[in-house]
Design goal:
Elements lengths: L5 H10 L3 E6 L2 E5 L5 E9 L2 E9 L5 H16 L4 H21 L4 H12 L6 H20 L8 H12 L3 H20 L22 H4 L13 H8 L5 H12 L3 H5 L6 E2 L4 E4 L10 E4 L2 H9 L23 H8 L9 H13 L4 H7 L7 H4 L7 H15 L10
Antiparallel strand pairs: 1-2, 2-3, 3-4, 5-6, 6-7
Helix pairs in contact: 4-5, 4-7, 5-6, 5-7, 6-7, 10-12, 15-17
């Protein structure tokens, strides 16, 4: 034990002369170059000298510094590095603090943060609203107030089992959204371990495949042999909604792609309609070759001042309602069909009545035809071949008596 006393330490601190003063048994009082004071314990591990800080003075007094040095010395004598022990204790305290902080963040809060972070990347506000609605309806009543760390497989099953058989599509979306939220929680160190909402290798062992619960219901579609006569009747209607439905059929586009189309997207000279990536389901711009029939329809459409849309709605600056074409189907006695179903009609016709390659037909529908390494070879949208296909389609549907299959 050194001869250093409390009064001596006070004098050394007041003098502020840089240097080390031996307090005995490896303990030193340090005065830094700027006058800062602290305690140092010097020891050897495996023949190597090491310094261990024991705290600043006067927060740590002489007596406490000696107690800390004694504990460190005992560890060093056994071959244990006291610095490693201290670091491990700090990590343990940090982990405990993080765990405590994580318990304060609920699943509902993580979900809200996830939606806020991804909202800008989603195509429209409707998608974010669907996220909020499905989680609020199905997930939050069970796990919304729980810490993200505490959500278990039992909780996920409690949410999914009541709707897995009756609402398989909804249940699948709820499961996927819970999984994504919990993945985000793990990325933020708010939970550890496996994701209880993971399907492959986990929930697929506890729930039947959605396809086995109930067959997926396709959009009701018209048989291709009936379409020419239907289009003849449709062309007799003068409503703008009838023209929108006619263009939808001629181009095999989705409802929203037609209703939100603007004149700026259409080039009548090059006979091309280009839908920007922001309006496409796959997030990729889509060029549509305009057949003679489609081009004639567009040339005859009225243009309204102050509106950029091909099919303007009743409200200024708004396109036609998404129910307008559905109502037109009802007027023609086809209320059991869907507008989207005409895409299936086109695809059935292309498969049964033409010899166009699958890739041409699928690209006409703006479907992805390859992924991974194969996708790298598909850099072209085979526009010219699709132009021929869409002209054949237009010629077929505008001929009242069904034409012979194209050879």
């Amino acid at each position: 034990m050194g001869s250093l006393t409390t009064k001596t330490v006070e004098k050394l601190a007041k003098a502020a002369v840089a240097g080390l003063t031996n307090a005995g048994d490896g303990l030193y009082f340090k005065v830094g170059k700027t006058g800062g004071t602290s305690w140092i314990f010097r020891f050897k591990i495996a023949g190597k000298s090491r310094d261990m800080g024991l705290g600043r003075y006067p927060e740590v007094g002489l007596a406490e510094a000696r107690d800390k040095a004694t504990e460190a010395r005992k560890l060093a004598k056994t071959g244990t590095d006291p610095l490693a022990v201290r670091d491990a204790e700090r990590e343990a305290r940090k982990a405990a603090q993080q765990a405590e902080a994580a318990r304060a963040v609920t699943f509902r809060e993580v979900a809200a943060s996830y939606i806020a972070a991804h909202r800008a990347g989603w195509k429209n506000a409707k998608h974010a609203q669907q996220w909020e609605n499905t989680l609020a309806t199905y997930a939050h009543p069970t796990i919304g107030a729980l810490p993200a760390q505490d959500v278990t497989t039992a909780h996920v099953l409690e949410i999914l089992q009541p709707i897995w058989a009756t609402k398989p599509e909804t249940a699948s979306r709820v499961r996927n959204r819970i999984e994504l939220v919990l993945d985000a929680a793990k990325a933020r160190n708010l939970r550890q371990g496996e994701n209880p909402a993971r399907w492959r290798g986990h929930l697929d062992k506890l729930l039947p495949k959605r396809s086995r619960v109930r067959a997926v219901k396709s959009h009701a579609a018209m048989a291709w042999v009936e379409l020419p006569d239907f289009l003849a009747k449709l062309r007799k209607l003068e409503a703008i909604s009838a023209r929108a439905l006619e263009l939808t059929i001629l181009t095999a586009c989705r409802t929203s792609e037609v209703l939100e189309a603007t004149w700026a997207e259409v080039d009548l000279v090059s006979r091309t309609w280009t839908i920007p990536a922001t309006r496409m389901k796959a997030g990729k711009a889509h060029r549509i070759p305009l057949s003679d029939a489609a081009l004639t329809l567009l040339e005859q459409l009225p243009r309204f001042e102050g509106s950029s849309y091909l099919f303007s709605g009743l409200k200024a600056g708004k396109p036609l309602s998404n129910q307008a074409m559905t109502m037109t189907l009802r007027r023609l006695g086809k209320g059991h069909l869907t507008v989207h179903g005409f895409r299936s009609t086109f695809r059935d016709w292309a498969a049964e009545c033409t010899h166009y390659p699958r890739e041409v037909c699928e690209l006409a529908l703006a479907h992805q035809i390859a992924d991974g390494a194969e996708a790298a070879y598909w850099r072209s949208d085979i526009f010219e071949k699709r132009y021929a296909l869409m002209n054949d389609w237009a010629r077929y549907v505008t001929t009242p008596s069904p034409a012979d299959p194209i050879r």
